[in-house]
Write a structure and sequence with these properties.
Layout: H1 3-99, H2 105-123, E1 127-131, H3 134-140, H4 144-147, E2 154-157, E3 169-172, E4 178-180, H5 183-189, H6 191-203
Parallel strand pairs: 1-2
Antiparallel strand pairs: 1-3, 3-4
Length: 214
């Protein structure tokens, strides 16, 4: 083989060797890039899974808290209804006990007189009209003047009975002023105070959830 042919052959081999080396280098670079892309993808998937897991956990926590709060509200509402029913029962019994006062004629007459005198004093008038219930009207009408003699005012007994369990309703002659000293009127005026007293007596030793701490 001539020297020139040998040079051409050597050049061809050198070019092929370089081409193979470049090809291997590109393949390796491609493999590295592929591995990097795959790792990035795996990292992103893991990050997304963590985010989804955290989001699902937050959603579950919110739902749990909502259910707990809803249950607590229902329980508190039921407890409030039960407490209110108990307070109303006690208040009704108080009203019943007050209404029994007029069963003792002597005691009731003294109380009626005091309520009349107090009401007239609050009005500050010399002439007033008094309403009492039908039973009291029957018991006191015939001796009304004598019964009210020691009160410093003219108390005219109305012929119209009031719907009440006891006590007087006192008005001015023109009807513009009134003191309601009937049992119902007095209870109504002091209802808030009675409610607070009943609540304190019934529930002062209970926690908000109804647990006795005594």
């Amino acid at each position: 083989m001539s020297e020139r042919a040998e040079q051409v052959t050597a050049l061809r081999e050198a070019i092929l060797h370089r081409a193979r080396a470049l090809a291997d280098e590109h393949v390796n670079q491609g493999r590295l890039i592929r591995n990097r892309i795959m790792q990035d993808a795996r990292d992103k998937v893991q990050l997304m899974e963590k985010k989804e897991l955290l989001a699902a956990r937050d959603a579950a926590d919110r739902e749990f808290n909502r259910v707990v709060q809803s249950s607590e509200l229902r329980m508190q509402a039921e407890l409030d209804r039960n407490r209110w029913g108990l307070v109303q029962t006690v208040l009704d019994r108080v009203c019943q006990q007050i209404a029994l006062i007029n069963k003792d004629e002597k005691q009731y007459a003294a109380l009626l007189f005091q309520l009349l005198k107090k009401g007239v004093g609050e009005l500050g008038l010399k002439r007033v009209i008094v309403q009492i219930n039908a039973a009291d009207h029957k018991a006191f009408a015939s001796r009304w003047d004598e019964f009210t003699r020691d009160i410093d005012a003219e108390l005219r007994l109305s012929s119209q009975a009031c719907e009440c369990s006891g006590g007087p309703r006192i008005t001015s002659e023109d009807g513009d002023m009134m003191v309601d000293n009937t049992f119902e009127g007095m209870i109504l005026r002091r209802e808030d105070e009675l409610m607070r007293l009943i609540f304190d007596r019934l529930f002062s030793r209970l926690s908000p959830t109804g647990v006795n701490h005594g």
